[in-house]
Amino acid sequence: MDLTQENLAQEHLCCIIRSRKPHPGVEAKRQWISERLKDGHVFRKYDAKECAFIEYAPLETAWVPIVGENYLYLYCLWVTGAPKGHGYGRALMESCIADARAQGRSGICMLGAKKQKAWLSDQSFAKKFGFGTVDSTPGGYELLALSFDGTYPAFAPNAKKERIESEKLTVYYDLQCPFILQKVDAIKRYCAEKSIPADFFEVDTLGKAKALPAPFNNWAVFYKGQMKTVNLLDVSALERILRA
User: Fold this and answer.
1) Euclidean distance between the first and final Cα of the chain, in Å?
2) pLDDT band at residue 19 using 50, 70 and 90 as cut-offs
3) Which of 23, 97, 137, 185 is the most exposed place for a label (fewest CB within 10 A)?
């Protein structure tokens, strides 16, 4: 099933399944999706109380610093728990490919890396469907694409900088992932307790997302002016970055 304005308030969002208690991250994502549906954003899931879903959007309106014409951008494909191993991932990917072809799209693209990163969809799985690397950044991030017509998207030039002027810990984030709010709160508390200078910038417009100075799926971390990761951080991961 696809989420729509009519069912969005009632349906769970897979990553953090709540039926009664409100969850700040879930409600923030619900609002984020609600505002994106008019732009062609798709959240398609297994119609059960389980985690199996795919999320994608037209590249022109996808909140990522990637440029190209007539592509879909695949934000996330995730199957875990009881549905895993039953073909739902394949079915979800095939539905996205079929959707792209039905729309007359040139292809589908997604963020990857030379070494698979947590919080990014499994690129080895995507490669089974014909996705291949079409662009890369100096820091080892890759843009994977499945092209139907021989054209390819690319990282925006600004995304390949992977540097900012500030030396402080700097986090760029949006509210697309329901885990983000709690990660931001935890890192802010840790930095306050340890007197670590830090800046947190919410990416709240398409323009800001397209202009980011590094690859971005919904999160990007800099330290000492250098891009460090697109992974959501817990305190132990943050400490490793600060020690490096």
Assistant:
1) 44
2) low
3) 185
